[in-house]
Amino acid sequence: MSTGRPPFGPQVFTPADAAFEQRVRDSFARQRVMDTIGASLTSVSPGEVVIGLPFREDLTQQHGYLHAAIVTAIVDSACGYAAYSLMPVDAAVLTVEYKVNFLAPAAGRKFIAQGRVTKPGRTLTVTTGDVFAETDAGLKPIATMLATMMAVSQRETSG
Questions:
Q1: What digits encode the pLDDT tens for the residues 44-79?
Q2: How far is Cα 111 from Cα 37, in angstroms, rounded to an integer?
């Protein structure tokens, strides 16, 4: 049975909340770890979020590369907010699990984490994320993530 669209074409999502972008931006602004490391929200669209992070020497590991924990933090947030962008207004988002593959050392002027929804759900949403290093030679892929995000009520996240 044909659905009329290619099996791997870009997905188009309709957010449950018309004010999803402001809700994502407000939540990101409350995420103090992103502020601490200097990450910023670059773009927000239904089911996709991009986070940028300039290179900082104080965030490196012993070889001078951006630390894997920092790479993981930005792509986890990008995936989480991609899922959150499709959730109802009364929902909050929490990471249930993720797996990261590091493809190359994290060396570059800036790092760009892109999170995308693969399969939205009422409770669980599957996402993918990629991190690229901005270098003199162009964008270089450095990590990829598969993550599951969970919608929870705002009440469950307080306390």
A1: 999 999 999 999 999 999 999 999 999 999 999 999
A2: 12
Q: Is the CA virtual torsion 95, 120, 78, 133 positive or negative?
A: positive
Say whether pTM exceeds 0.85.
Answer: yes
| 129 close to 112: Cβ distance less than 8 angstroms | no
Residue 117 tokens, joined: 């929804």
Pair of tokens at residue 50: 């991009």
pLDDT greater than 50 at residue 2: no
Residues 52, 1: Cα–Cα separation, whole Å: 41
Q: How far apart, in Å, are the Cα atoms of 19 and each of 3, 23, 42, 88?
A: 30, 6, 17, 10
Tokens representing residue 149 in the block = 């995000």
* Strand, helix or coil for residue 23: helix
Amino acid occupying residue 97: E
8 A C-beta contact, residue 115 and residue 48: yes
